[in-house]
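RECORD CONTENTS
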Amino acid sequence: MKDLIGLRIKIGRKFDKGKGSSRFAYPDFDAMPEEKRGGMPWQYYFDAAGTGWLYDNCCAHNEVDDYNPELGVWYGIIGVPEEFALEALTRWPNEVERLTETEFEEFYDHRCMENQSEYKYDADQLNGIRARYGDLPVADPEIIRAFTDATPDTKSAIVAGLLATDGKTLTPAEDDAASKLCDMDPCDCRALDPDDPLPGICRNKNKHFSDFKAVKNIRIK
């Protein structure tokens, strides 16, 4: 597991007279010694050694809200190795702030990914399943997994097993979904399970920091 330091970066805007337009004003991270950024330009270093940039998607430069009431300011967070983080905190104390893992997760979940969907959908795969079976069964992943390898002949035994082991009684909607699943190919059933790797309906592993850090194998110190 890689230990990283969480930073919140204040990004302003700067008018470029030559181009007649404004540009993002990041701290000049390339002014740091090369050895503190892996010998790379900082943009590449953030991706190679850290989490990559994670921007506030709720409030940009031309907006304000309760979290960011300052017009012309945008925030991003980044997880980076300790050597880089400590240098940045020293050089730019007004633009760079250290975050705890709880603060980092809060920003990630509620500022960066608030508007992202919980699931990702493979339209071609799902349309193919619809063409074979009609409307897709709608049920919790646990129900889908329980009936993935079922047939109409084994449905009642699975229902009885759910009642015996979990005290679970199927609602009318779940019973209807179970009947549909029993008539489907197991691979098509698996495509509807968001935690199964087959394409279809897949859980968005970027939606929550708890999933993101597990996939990246990182921890914010």
Remarks:
- The beta strands are 2-16, 21-25, 54-55, 74-80, 96-99, 119-121, 201-203, 218-220.
- The mean pLDDT is 93.
- The chain has nine helices and eight strands.
